[in-house]
Automatic annotation (TrEMBL):
Domain named RNA polymerase sigma factor 70 region 4 type: residues: 51-90
Pfam families with a match to the protein in the record: Sigma70_r4_2
Keywords per UniProt: Sigma factor, Transcription, Transcription regulation
One GO-annotated biological process of the protein: DNA-templated transcription initiation
InterPro entries named in the record: RNA_pol_sigma70_r4_t2, RNA_pol_sigma_r3/r4-like, WH-like_DNA-bd_sf
Keyword match Thylakoid: no
SUPFAM superfamilies noted in UniProt: Sigma3 and sigma4 domains of RNA polymerase sigma factors
Protein name in the entry: Sigma-70, region 4
Keyword Transcription among UniProt keywords: yes
Family, similarity comment: Belongs to the sigma-70 factor family. ECF subfamily.
Amino acid sequence: MALSEAQINAVIDRADRGESLTGLAEEYGVTRQAVRGLLRRRGIPPRRSGRLTDHQREAVVRRYLEGASIAQIAREVGVSEPSVRGLLLRRGVPLRVHTLNHGAFDELTPTACYWAGFLFADGSVTARQGHLPTVSVGLAECDRDHLVALRTFLGSTSSISAPNPKLRSCQFAVRSTQLADRLLQLGRYTGSVNEQLTSSRDFWRGVVDGDGSIGAYAKRPGGPLSPQFRLVGRPRLLEPFVDFLSERVSCNLTVRPHKTIATVGTTGRPARGIIDLLYRDAETALSRKAERAAAIVRAGDHLVLRVRSAES
């Protein structure tokens, strides 16, 4: 994306006053490297890493009081989280004490099974030396309410990031050794997935909400719409899903290679049966998929819906 002369002048002025190059890049829809190159060509030296201007210090305090997290602010201004925390303490800003239910997955209730499935599909568990493990998930801006529901389940008061204007996505993360260890123990990345999870329709609904698609398509132009179900993922997760369905729905699914991962899917009555099994009377689900599922099941064998193409 090319910047106008007015935008270039604004970027130069704001960068020279100490604003974050990353923040400017996101705001103007260009890369951080592009902003650095622009400054270099105009003879403006880059800001020294780890040093904040008075303007930036004021912005740090303002952003924190507006509700931004310390981690988010640190990324924006290009310093460490301890630096931001220390600045706030020196300015006399009371730090927020966030709550979190570290044992949210200790008991595998239906709701816990659902969120475990969702995090298995769309979430990540990461750890860096010297930091607490992080459980995080990012969703499209239109699904922000689902992150709010996850935050409520976890008993967390941590903030959800503001939507990224370029990617139209938002992020939510919590730090907890207990939560991270529990998800890994349940089989998030290695080993077999916990049997209580693999026998739970709530768990599989969470997985489908994260990495699946449901919809209805015409097999020929102008013809009636037929339900379609599809789930992508690693074979170690899809194979238990096929086993789960084989005992409950009349279908004959096979895990098939798909690019670097795998997929299972079907259409027609088997697809509707799977959708009905997972979503009927569900208390927790991604709202747009739950609405689409209800329409498909409600239509039965007379599916003449104007359902848009399935969305992941």
